[in-house]
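REVIEWER CHECKLIST
Item 1: Sequence provided? yes
Item 2: Single chain? yes
Item 3: Sequence as submitted:
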Amino acid sequence: MAQLSLGILLCGIASRAQSQEPPVAAGVGSGAAGASAADSSTRGSSSEPQSSGSIRGSVVDRTGNIIVGACVKLTRDDASQNQEASSDGEGQFFLPNVTPGLFQLTITLPGFATQTISGVLSPGEVYTVPQTTLAIATAVTEVRVVPNTVEVAEDEIKEQEKQRVLGFIPNFYVSYVSNAASLSPKQKFELAWKTSVDPVTFGLTGATAGIQQAQNDFSGYGQGAQGYAKRYGASYANLTIGTFIGGAILPSLFKQDPRYFYKGTGSTRSRILYAIANAVICKGDNKRWQANYSGILGGLAAGGISNLYYPPQDRNGAALTFENALIGIGESAAANILQEFVVRRLTPSASKGQQARP
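Item 4: Structure as written out by the authors:
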């Protein structure tokens, strides 16, 4: 989100005119000199005019989305200056030619609670107001009595479903709202379904099957179109079974949230430890952290089920299934670290400033 830079206007210093005085008598000279000095002192004590400054800022809603058309009104205690502006298509507002001194901004928009901000503007300063968040007006909230958790979660899911890495790869199982509403069982299944049937999912599965065939992985499937179809079916089954068991069925049974909650703040070390820990812990529907039974058991279950369709020579025994589950935990930790430090920068919809709900 762009920085403006304005130069400070310099006040001109009035040059002192030097007068030509006629010769005077010796007895009067000291008096004339004294009068000239007094006049010079009077001119030097006059105050210089102060240069005006400007005020800028931005307005967003509680989810971090920009607000267009918010009215920003500048007032002063002595009513010496009143000025208004509106937030533009980027949520930005700008008030030029503001007299230095104490000021107050009142930000209003129908349906939202009024925000009041005070500050002191120095001469020539470009004052940047911290990002202003407008909350829904109390009257609107009272009409609904209590916000419906399912409806709030539905709105947040719609935003998640816009999240695509590089603009096309689905990134639905990450929430950039740290205290997002818990998902209902139906919403968990809907999220798993939309992930499984996304066109990009089919494309990536096809690429995976092609690489496997080129390397002759799962040789029992053979080559040719039939071998490719079997590899494609096995790859898609792995993804779909893992998504539904670990992202919908077990989270519904254990009442756990299958999403990764982006941290985004704190030291690098704390964020790395948070990402690694989230490979084995998760948030429950009660908002408390707990062991990630859904993810761990989901990995084991998906690995066991894959033995039903892999060629006999490629099927995993119990020991190898547990070993693969541990590898999966490590892969989840690595993926979480990428989510914390890289993926958000590559996700255009997430860069619009999603924040925690107040």
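Item 5: Key structural point noted by reviewer: Residues 53-140 form a domain with the Immunoglobulin-like fold (CATH 2.60.40.1120).
Item 6: Recommendation: ____
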